[in-house]
Amino acid sequence: MVDLDELRARFARSLQRARHPGDGPDPSPYADRLLDHWQEPQRRYHTLTHLTAVLDHVDTLAEYADDPDLVRLAAWFHDAVYLPDRSENEERSARLAERALAEAGLPDERTAEVARLVRLTAGHAPADDDRNGHVLCDADLAVLASPPSGYAAYTAAVREEYGFVPADAFRAGRAAILRELLALPRLFHTPYGAEHWETTARYNLTAELEMLSSSARALP
Known about the structure:
Layout: H1 4-19, H2 28-38, H3 48-61, H4 68-77, H5 89-103, H6 108-120, H7 131-141, H8 148-161, H9 167-183, H10 191-196, H11 198-218
C-alpha cells in the first residue's frame, strides 16, 4: 500500500530544496494535484506504485546526478499526464511541469530543466554528459531488471493498460518496443545501473520478445 502522506512529504522536500526553503507557496496543493493524476482510473502500470519505485531508484542513484532534487521533481511529472491511447504524454507532462512549477516558485531555469528531463523519458537516450538525464532514465527503466515475478507483474499491468488494443496488434507493437530497447548500445547510463541492472534487463527483454514471437507463431 502506497503511503500518500509520505509521498506528499517527499514532494514537499524536493520542491523546497529546489527553490530554497521558505520560497513560494505551500507545496501541498501541488502534491495533491499530482497524486490525483497518478490515481486516474485508466492506469494499471503508470500508477503510484510506479511513481514510488522511480523515486526510490532516484534516491539510489542520487550521487550520479548534478541536481537530485530536480530529477526527483521530474520523476513526479514524467507520467503525470498519461492516456494509453495518446502518443504525446511526455510532452503534455512537460508542459504541466512548466506551468505548475513556475506557479510553485521554482526559478525559470530550474523549471526548464525539469521539463527537459520529462521530455527525455520519451526516448530514454540522454547525452553522454547528461548526468541528471542518466539518473532519471535509469530510474524509469529499472523495472526492466526486476526479478521474474516482478517482471511478469509489470508486463501484465502494461497489457491491461492497453486492453483496448487487439492481441495481435499489441504483440506487434510491444515486440517493436522491445527490439528498440535491445538495440540501444546500453539501457542504463549510471555506473550503478550498468553494474546491477543491465544484464538482467536484457535477459528479461529478450525472454519477453521470444515469448511474444512464440505466441505469434502459434496462431492458426
